[in-house]
Design a protein that fits this description.
Helices cover 62% and strands 12% of the residues. It is α+β, with helices and mostly antiparallel strands. The chain has a single domain, classed as Orthogonal Bundle (Arc Repressor Mutant, subunit A), CATH 1.10.10.10. A three-stranded antiparallel sheet has the order 1-3-2. The chain is globular and about 45 Å long.
Length: 115
Amino acid sequence: MQIASNFQYCKKPVEKHGNHVARSLEVVGYKWALLIVRELLDGPRRFTQISRALPDANQKMITARLRELEAAGVVSRVAYAEVPPRVEYSLTPRGRALRPVVEALRSWGKSLPAR
């Protein structure tokens, strides 16, 4: 019983601080989401440019992630009335705020052993 009560005591601070991380991961934690953000850090991109930069991701998945990121206010979508139609995606200020996160992950990834 003593261990269980100590566990409950220790769990509360973790939940308190973990909520911010969990909320962040609800936006960018899905597969391909952060890689799409990485591609948009250098400026607006068309769908085909994003797709070519992520060859292992299928178009349906990229489309779903772009819609989710747009709904979360991370990505903006601009459709131009041209023939053929042209759509560009870019980061909003909220999305550009993820640059330090992407850079930190890039640095951390460099330190990992090769697979």
